[in-house]
Amino acid sequence: MEETTFKVDTGKGFNLSATLFLKSIVHSESIVIVCHGLLNTRLSETVRTVVERIPYHALSFDFQGNGLSEGITAYGNYEEEVENVRCIVSYVREKLERKVLCICGHSKGAAVVLLYASKYSDVPLIINISARYDHTQIPPSRFRPEQLEELKTKGSFVWLKLGNQDYVIRQEDMNASLSLDMSVVKNIDKRKIRVLTVHGSKDEVCPLEGSYTYDLLMGPKPYHSLTVIQGANHCYNNEKHKTILIDKITAWLNEFVPWSSNL
């Protein structure tokens, strides 16, 4: 596998850092773009598992303000990250002169990928790995009570360090996250797009129930396929669960590559 790291100009005053993974034996010459989750990078365990093990060329990148990418991140910046994906898709087509077969995301990145598909109908295959559906409640273990009190009284608090920068949670960012409406996935164009959702039955971060809601909104097959991996947690840390994850993704991609080539 050949790895090449480069910068992508967003046209907004900052660059995104990306890595292209080209493989000697693949099922298609097109590219699978893989997106990381909250507080993570393109080097996350789940992202690396996907880009290294699927029999397709892959590209992973750091969202703005994460990893080696420039710019600033924020807690509720889903729409900004959708536009990050848009930049990467354009780069693959215009600079690398390759087709984008699929966009795959994990956790927050999966929600971003679904939002991308609901806004733009230009990538035929979408993979959602463990996206949250219901954003109306703050995950109970995410913030300490004193942090939420500081948010209430001061309008912001420093959550943690992200690289050399303070990751500040502002009330407007929290509001943006809490008001995120994932029901827009029902607008994904069934004529042009197929979606796979994979979720672990023991996900401790994003409730499994959300994947059943996605299935109701985007299904039935072949428009949306849902796979629940029994015993898997949010990050698929167990080697057995990694293998099942890759097998499911690969089988689904192999099934729909011929369909996508006819669009």
Automatic annotation (TrEMBL):
Every Serine aminopeptidase S33 domain range: 28-195
Pfam families the UniProt entry points to: Hydrolase_4 (PF12146)
PANTHER family, per database record: ALPHA_BETA-HYDROLASES SUPERFAMILY PROTEIN, RE40534P-RELATED
Record-given protein name: 7741_t:CDS:1
Organism: Funneliformis geosporum
Lineage per the UniProt record: Eukaryota, Fungi, Fungi incertae sedis, Mucoromycota, Glomeromycotina
